[in-house]
Amino acid sequence: MEEMEEELKCPVCGSFYREPIILPCSHNLCQACARNILVQTPESESPQSRRASGSGVSDYDYLDLDKMSLYSEADSGYGSYGGFASAPTTPCQKSPNGVRVFPPAMPPPATHLSPALAPVPRNSCITCPQCHRSLILDDRGLRGFPKNRVLEGVIDRYQQSKAAALKCQLCEKAPKEATVMCEQCDVFYCDPCRLRCHPPRGPLAKHRLVPPAQGRVSRRLSPRKVSTCTDHELENHSMYCVQCKMPVCYQCLEEGKHSSHEVKALGAMWKLHKSQLSQALNGLSDRAKEAKEFLVQLRNMVQQIQENSVEFEACLVAQCDALIDALNRRKAQLLARVNKEHEHKLKVVRDQISHCTVKLRQTTGLMEYCLEVIKENDPSGFLQISDALIRRVHLTEDQWGKGTLTPRMTTDFDLSLDNSPLLQSIHQLDFVQVKASSPVPATPILQLEECCTHNNSATLSWKQPPLSTVAAEGYILELDDGSGGQFREVYVGKETMCTVDGLHFNSTYNARVKAFNKTGVSPYSKTLVLQTSEGCNFETQSAPYSQLVDIKKLLAVAWFAFDPGSAHSDIIFSNDNLTVTCSSYDDRVVLGKTGFSKGVHYWELTIDRYDNHPDPAFGVARIDVMKDVMLGKDDKAWAITEGGITKGATIGVLLDLNRKTLTFFINDEQQGPIAFENVEGLFFPAVSLNRNVQVTLHTGLPVPDFYSSRASIA
């Protein structure tokens, strides 16, 4: 009821109505407040002068609104009546409710009468502080306005409900707070006393129990006062004038202005208007309910905005950090190129210095030798060697003349860094208004006819809706823990079929799948319930079954093929991209379509052709591995190279991301201990081969039994 309090307060004094009266505009005022805002009008505007001129049509004459200026154009807080020479300008004040009201033009005369009976200045005018409609009072003054007894009753009940709590009247010691009141017994009860003294059975079952506040109001309220006519104070209201929309008495119908109006019974109109008000309240109640729901939605939006803001800020920081990291990596690469160019220039110049030094030493030696020969005085001996020396001198001179004295390298660096596009991109870096240019994929559909369980494995298949126009880049398959717990991801990839192994026997699992692309993630598909088999095939294991299941965990088995999109252009595909060879004598790399970041995965490759003893390599690699060199030559791949394999051999690759290990098998025999450890990240199956090799990929295979047994016991 606290929201109703503003309806019960006077717009002038801001307090609860005291002896409220109803103005013709249907608004209410306290009698005292109504008297305080009266304004005296000129004689020419009196109702008597109006009626004498034949213009009066009612007991209350509204002033023309064009003759009144309630507020100044600049809303300065002052208002005045215009067009009256005798009416002084009266400042406007604000009531506690924020409504502008006009104080009296002169102090009211001292009187000992009540506000209703005190004389009213002649030709008085009153302005409603809510709708600002003005009217001139007749000789009855404020007594001409009906009293709002209904509003008085509501205020009385409201004030009673806000009073202190009532105590039980039957408690012997330390009376407790009353919870109900019996209208027939006229007694307040607490819950224990009500159950003991007023059981809901027998004759007492028909008694009406009401809340204490309502019972106190009904007990204290005096009998309802009968409303009397404002024109004939000794007559009670008995009829309702339909034209004037007000209750009237019998004398009004006989002598007054309502004699020719249509009237109806007061009780019938009372019930009719109550029904109309109830119907109107139903519609308003629906609007209020919608408003409450809307407020809840807005409050949830505030919380969501705060959460999204934190998430968006974190994403923005991460994106900027990624740009900075990428720039630092590129900076390191460019510096490496500069250092390489620096070392190359120094090497060329130093080699030329060394070469020229040797050549100059040889030339100087030849010159000194020739000078010594010239000093000899033996003609015959000189002539024996002079021709050869002359040829050597000319040959040495010619060698110096063939660009030997030209530097082979310039001192300038031929590298030029153009950073203007990057700077421009950084300056243009901004938020886009639309979060995504394309919609998210449609919800995948689980193909029930292809979904099944076998022992403790479950196979699920799904597809995109037939009319879907948005491509999906991949799918995320989720399963719960078999006990109704949280869902967790068991497969992420492009394939539309997946087998999940290592589930609990005789358990019920819930599975769902969603699609994703660069824009976002689709809604989840309908949840599929799967039941695993009751039997268990591990009786021969030394460890208990529960231990096997707990350690084995969920092993996702996926079907996949080689990926033509990321492979080297020399790779040749066949057999639905499961068989590959190469057109080049050099080694080329091809990756699988599916990447793995967790779980245990096993696949095999068979050698279909093996000519001239090539060196194919098998293993895993990052997505950015070099495609034109043998697998494992860079730091993006982990592989095994076996030159002793033959045609028909089978190479198995076991990637255990739970243990972070990589193990290889040839013809079902493990090749030594674990090949690689501390393997973390996202890995793709990978093969490197040349034209002398052809291999076929086999996927969807279970983990070798001996490895599972060893892993479960470890």
UniProtKB/TrEMBL annotation:
Residues annotated as transmembrane: none
Domain called RING-type: residue spans: 10-50
Coiled coil: 288-344
SMART domains found in the cross-reference section: BBC, BBOX, FN3, RING, SPRY
PROSITE patterns: B302_SPRY, COS, FN3, ZF_BBOX, ZF_RING_1, ZF_RING_2
Keyword Repeat included in the entry's annotation: yes
Any one GO MF annotation of this record: zinc ion binding
Occurrences of domain Fibronectin type-III (ranges): 440-535
UniProt subcellular location: Cytoplasm, Cytoskeleton
Start and end residues of each B30.2/SPRY domain: 539-714
COS domain span: 374-432
Lineage summary: Eukaryota, Metazoa, Chordata, Craniata, Vertebrata
Domain B box-type, first and last residues per copy: 163-212, 224-266
Major localization class: cytoplasm
Keywords: Coiled coil, Cytoplasm, Cytoskeleton, Metal-binding, Repeat, Ubl conjugation pathway, Zinc, Zinc-finger
Superkingdom of source: Eukaryota
Segment forming the signal sequence: none
CDD domains tied to this protein: Bbox1_TRIM9_C-I, Bbox2_TRIM9_C-I, FN3, SPRY_PRY_TRIM67_9
Protein name stated in the entry: Tripartite motif-containing 9
InterPro entries: B30.2/SPRY, B30.2/SPRY_sf, Bbox_C, ConA-like_dom_sf, COS_domain, E3_ligase_FN3/SPRY, FN3_dom, FN3_sf
Entry function: E3 ubiquitin-protein ligase which ubiquitinates itself in cooperation with an E2 enzyme UBE2D2/UBC4 and serves as a targeting signal for proteasomal degradation. May play a role in regulation of neuronal functions. May act as a regulator of synaptic vesicle exocytosis by controlling the availability of SNAP25 for the SNARE complex formation.
GO cellular component: cytoplasm; cytoskeleton
